[in-house]
């Protein structure tokens, strides 16, 4: 593996143009000092061995093996542990460790930290388990790296903030979208004052019918597990706005519903009988055949007999409790206003951001997949991040990104976006450098991209408040959520 090609975390997400370069533009990658020869490598444990763990396992068995190594697994499913353990052995990272790394179940976290002398626990488990695992790891004496979202509700925020305060240990949030050059460039434009003081942001995110449908096949389809897309997915986006504005949310109103996926919507549109699951359902564009991706087959299909979890449910099956269409209005403490929308069944994937200021306007448009190109068998390419496909040649909506700035009384100007490396808009590889060797940076990050637990609280605060607003039909002051800390 090269440092420029970490394993992408989402097998159905499109590969944007800014991720396809193996050579980053000058100044994009920060400089790091080599680790001292006498410094021992940090000892990492991975809590949650689903697909999302892959990026971190690849990093610690590849480009960052000189500063850290995996010493234990924690997961209730031994089949998924088996799959990752084989990856570690194949990478040669277990030498001189024994062929199989120690494994633990979630109730054994404290024993794992003590027995394996764990320095850092990487939490990549389902969202609703984050708060307990983070809190317990901190109290057991380990630092934590946690995938977004930090947690799914206010109680989880309180548990984590109290544990941080009482232990003094560190929590790193992996907000990789901050590191995408297009998003970093927009932050630079805003911070420079070119458009004046920001008065409002409009942010529209479109998930296509491959990537979007995937949230309605897996455990995310139940709000008690994921907090819904406004927590699980949109915490990325709300963090970007918080970071761009260097501000915190004050009040939230939201509306949303399940308008496309689910059995009721399918029946109302006259959709006939559907397969119960996607595997062995050829030719159906809304089905996911786990055999189409070796990682999905190994981590889920081959492991489902251990716990009964099926990763390939039909997105039009009963039991979905999350929304697929959402609109959010956020007042910020500094006076700016955010209007945000998320659609999970778009024919194309990408996002548009408009930032209005007292001196002008900035517009960022990103097309990650202009349309879903179905082959003859009807099955969309599931992992263009791992296996890039030739550009489809869409003339009206070509894949790409563009940032335009226009000041009052002046012509519009396009701002160059430098090439990134790795998935998620070219930000993953740079994020991993900060996660695993951030203390070796030769200079502080002027963009302040590294994120901690408080950034995680600020991001989920919007989604938590939005869920409450959808439940009550009333605007929700963020300060009344009881998050355990002042944002």
Automatic annotation (TrEMBL):
Residues 7-22 have a biased composition (Polar residues). Belongs to the Gfo/Idh/MocA family. It holds the Pfam family GFO_IDH_MocA_C. It comes from Streptomyces xiamenensis. The lineage of its organism: Bacteria, Bacillati, Actinomycetota, Actinomycetes, Kitasatosporales. Residues 43-173 form the Gfo/Idh/MocA-like oxidoreductase N-terminal domain. This is Oxidoreductase domain protein. InterPro entries: Gfo/Idh/MocA-like_OxRdtase_C (IPR004104), Gfo/Idh/MocA-like_OxRdtase_N (IPR000683), Gfo/Idh/MocA_Oxidoreductases (IPR051450), NAD(P)-bd_dom_sf (IPR036291). Residues 187-478 form the Gfo/Idh/MocA-like oxidoreductase C-terminal domain. Residues 269-279 have a biased composition (Basic and acidic residues). One of its GO terms (molecular function) is nucleotide binding. Residues 1-42, 269-288 are annotated as: Disordered.
């Amino acid at each position: 593996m090269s440092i420029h090609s970490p394993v992408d975390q989402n097998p159905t997400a499109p590969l944007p143009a800014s991720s396809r370069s193996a050579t980053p533009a000058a100044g994009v990658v920060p400089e790091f000092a080599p680790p001292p020869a006498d410094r021992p490598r940090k000892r990492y444990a991975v809590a949650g061995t689903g697909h999302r763990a892959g990026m971190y396992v690849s990093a610690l068995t590849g480009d960052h093996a000189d500063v850290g190594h995996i010493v234990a697994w924690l997961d209730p499913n031994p089949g998924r542990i088996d799959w990752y353990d084989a990856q570690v052995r194949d990478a040669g990272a277990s030498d001189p460790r024994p062929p199989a790394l120690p494994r633990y179940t979630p109730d054994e976290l404290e024993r794992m930290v003590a027995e394996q002398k764990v320095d850092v626990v990487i939490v990549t488990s389902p969202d609703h388990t984050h708060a307990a695992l983070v809190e317990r790891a901190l109290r057991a004496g380990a630092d934590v790296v946690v995938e977004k979202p930090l947690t799914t509700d206010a109680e989880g925020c309180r548990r984590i903030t109290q544990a941080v305060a009482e232990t003094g240990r560190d929590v790193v949030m992996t907000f990789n979208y901050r590191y995408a050059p297009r998003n970093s460039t927009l932050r630079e434009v805003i911070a420079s004052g070119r458009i004046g003081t920001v008065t409002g942001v409009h942010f529209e995110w479109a998930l296509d019918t491959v990537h979007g449908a995937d949230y309605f096949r897996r455990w995310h389809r139940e709000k008690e597990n994921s907090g819904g897309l406004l927590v699980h997915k949109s915490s990325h986006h709300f963090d970007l706005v918080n970071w761009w504005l260097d501000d915190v949310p004050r009040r939230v109103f939201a509306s949303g519903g399940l308008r496309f996926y689910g059995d009721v919507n399918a029946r109302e549109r006259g959709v006939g009988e559907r397969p119960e699951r996607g595997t062995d359902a050829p030719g159906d564009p809304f089905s996911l055949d786990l055999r189409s991706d070796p990682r999905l087959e190994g981590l889920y299909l081959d492991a489902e007999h251990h716990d009964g979890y099926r990763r390939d449910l039909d997105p039009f099956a009963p039991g979905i409790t999350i929304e697929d269409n959402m609109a959010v209005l956020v007042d910020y403490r500094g006076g700016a206003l955010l209007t945000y929308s998320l659609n999970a069944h778009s024919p194309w994937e990408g996002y548009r951001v408009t930032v209005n200021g007292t001196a002008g306007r900035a517009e960022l448009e990103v097309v990650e997949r202009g349309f879903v190109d179905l082959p003859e068998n009807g099955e969309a390419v599931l992992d263009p991040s791992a296996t890039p496909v030739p550009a489809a040649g869409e003339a009206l909506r070509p894949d790409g990104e563009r940032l335009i700035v226009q000041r009052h009384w002046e012509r519009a100007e396009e701002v160059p976006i430098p090439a990134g490396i790795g998935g998620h808009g070219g930000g993953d590889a740079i994020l991993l450098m900060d996660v695993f060797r951030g203390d070796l940076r030769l200079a502080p990050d002027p963009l302040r991209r590294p994120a901690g637990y408080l950034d995680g609280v600020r991001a989920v605060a919007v989604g938590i408040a939005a869920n409450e607003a959808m439940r009550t039909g009333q605007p929700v002051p963020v300060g009344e959520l009881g998050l355990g800390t002042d944002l």
